[in-house]
């Protein structure tokens, strides 16, 4: 009987998860494994939502956002009795290795399963790009592009009305998504949790723009940094301008994965299977200088993701 491995997606979905699932399944089959898909993340692991996947099960998904395996947040996985149950459910199915695609919270589940004798390999899939050790996570690039497309549209209406727009983007407690999108769209100001902001300075920049007949301005705010409606009020107290707020929300999590995310998902999915075959465990796939590396999962909790302050200052210098 061929050995079995399984794959699940957990936490918030991210464009590129499907290419990663496809790669796990197809690489797994080509290496002689049977591959089981676990639906609804750890919740499905606890309630045994297992389906065997064949080569055709992952056809026609490489271009689709979301995750064909469905996902869920499963706070129950923090309880030791559930962690025991999850490991027992895998052992009862003779599943020797598990690929977990998700963010930092999902990685914690991998450690608990590893401690219970299950080999685990994690793949970073989150639009937040907040996993220490990898330069980028699956889903980040697509989400940045989604924000750019939204800003392009906002600029049309902002220019027509000569307004200032404040745009809130996701990222949880981390500002990298706002920073990357802000630099790429030439936002006039970027507000992130990692860097103290000064609304006198932000308002001064806006005013200078207005005084030189600038048609509009965009302020990009990371959701973890500040309340966008409060920022609007504070700026209105300082300058006389029309300001509108847009909260982009879950639009950022959807959409067909970009080429970058398809490549990343495909490479990391295949690498995860290779690592399981080599008998490795408790590692996650990371990309550094164009190469896929395997790093200990526990190390990604040790340090906060380094925030690229140089990019922040570059964005600040380039948009006046
Ligand atoms: O972690 C991804 C993310 O989209 C964050 O940016 C955001 O704060 C959170 O998930 C939203 O979670 P939910 O979809 O559970 O509301």
Can you offer a commentary on this structure?
This protein has ten helices and eleven strands. By secondary structure, it is an alpha/beta fold. It has two domains: 4-139 and 257-301, 3-Layer(aba) Sandwich (Rossmann fold); 142-253, Phosphofructokinase domain (Rossmann fold, 3-Layer(aba) Sandwich), CATH 3.40.50.460. Strands 3-2-1-4-5-10-11 form a seven-stranded mixed β-sheet, sandwiched between helices. Bound molecules: 6-O-phosphono-beta-D-fructofuranose (F6P).
* SSE pattern, N- to C-terminal: EHEHEHEHEHEHEHEHEHEEH
**Count of extended strands:** 11
Number of helices: 10
Radius of gyration: 22 Å
CATH class of the largest domain: Alpha Beta
Given the C-alpha coordinates, what overall shape results? Answer: elongated
Second rung of CATH, namely the architecture of the largest domain: 3-Layer(aba) Sandwich
> Strand order of the main beta sheet, please?
3-2-1-4-5-10-11
The major β-sheet equals: 7 strands, mixed
Q: What is the count of distinct domains?
A: 2
What ligands does this structure carry? 6-O-phosphono-beta-D-fructofuranose
Instruction: Give the helix level as a range of percent.
Output: 40-55%
Task: Give the CATH topology of the largest domain.
Answer: Rossmann fold
Strand content: 15-25%
Poorly predicted runs of 5 or more residues: none
Q: Separation of termini?
A: 65 Å
Q: From the helix content, strand content and strand pairing, which structural class follows? A: alpha/beta
Mean residue pLDDT: 96
